[in-house]
Amino acid sequence: MTTLIDSYAVQCAKCKKLRYIEAQEKYEEIRSKSPHTCFECKSCEELGDVHVDVDSPNVRWFLDQHGIPKTPKGWKRILVVRGNGEKVDVYYETPQQKKVRSPKQVAKFIQDNEEFKDDVKMEEISFVAPKRMKKPKS
DNA sequence: GCCACCGGTGGC
DNA sequence: GCCACCGGTGGC
């Protein structure tokens, strides 16, 4: 069974609470601007959405890097959690539903599909994977 | 034959 | 030592 990352949360720069972000697109928007533009809650008074338990048997937590570019229109960024739950593989799906998994393959795709070359730039693609969150050392 | 998935490693 | 990237292959 394939496990995909399909839920996203961000931390408010002010109150430090975590907020779920409904859509991947919205999440990517926030991530692309971070850390230069910090996310803030609409209302810090409201209770946080989630409590991170890195040892939870039900939920896996991965931490994303800042500044990953927004996925180009027509493309999909797919995050597959490996069987052991420790590592995530990043794939992109092209507008033709072809999966690519390295910058080299993206470059080749652009080369082979001249008609799409204006829709995607190498700088808009990042295979940097989120990392499994670990318990902070006490 | 394809491709989802994982292992290994070069480059940092 | 880590991890982005790629090679190889088992299962279909």
From TrEMBL:
Q: Which UniProt keywords apply?
A: DNA-binding, Nucleus, Transcription, Transcription regulation
Where in or outside the cell it occurs: the entry states: Nucleus
* Principal location listed in the UniProt entry: nucleus
Question: CDD domains of this UniProt entry?
Answer: MeCP2_MBD
Per the record's keyword annotation, is DNA-binding included, yes or no? yes
Q: Which species is the source of this protein?
A: Capsella rubella
Top-rank taxon: Eukaryota
Traced from the root, the source organism's taxonomic lineage reads: Eukaryota, Viridiplantae, Streptophyta, Embryophyta, Tracheophyta
SMART domains in the record: MBD
User: PROSITE patterns annotated for this entry?
Assistant: MBD
Q: Which GO terms describe its cellular component?
A: nucleus
> Taking every annotated instance into account, which residue ranges of this chain make up the domain MBD?
61-132
This entry's Gene Ontology molecular function terms read:
DNA binding
Entry protein name: MBD domain-containing protein
